[in-house]
Design a protein that fits this description.
about 150 residues; 5 helices; four-stranded parallel beta sheet; Rossmann fold; alpha/beta
């Protein structure tokens, strides 16, 4: 049985370029309905930030995380599916570095913000591109940009 995460303060970081065509509806409704990567949070969990990376190579993330952490006591950052996926979004060359840097800041990092990341992993497994998935595996390297 999965442990319920009580009262966590959560932020979602998304791709700067993708925000031009995505209003964040899927990320926000997934949190609100506690679905997909948000299913382990209880009703006391709060979304305290929703922001873009600031453009390559994620130039705004660390400043904003520091600010949110100081203001709210941020616990967890969800990396939006638009940063992680490789189709149809622009491929992020910096996702692995961004994820590792956030972890070094003492923030728990969760990959995905809706069902799109789960679908991406399933497709890569079916194609034989990955066999098993861990946070630091091949799928996070950001190869084949555009």
């Amino acid at each position: 049985m999965t442990e319920v995460k009580t009262g966590k303060k959560i932020a979602i970081v998304r791709c700067e370029r993708t925000q031009e065509s995505c209003p964040g509806t899927s990320c926000l409704s997934s949190f609100q309905e506690r679905k997909y990567t948000f299913k382990e949070y209880d009703e006391n969990a709060m979304l305290v930030g929703f922001f873009s990376c600031g453009g390559c190579p994620g130039r705004r993330i660390f400043r904003l995380i520091r600010s949110i952490k100081e203001e709210t006591g941020l616990d967890v950052v969800h990396v939006a599916s638009c940063i992680l996926k490789e189709e149809p979004f622009p491929k992020c060359l910096h996702k692995k570095d961004i994820i590792e840097s956030m972890k070094k800041m003492g923030i728990e990092v969760i990959l995905g913000s809706d069902d799109k990341w789960e679908i991406e992993k399933r497709i890569k497994k079916e194609r034989g591109e990955i066999t098993q998935f861990d946070d630091d595996e091949e799928i996070l390297k950001g190869s084949s940009h555009w």
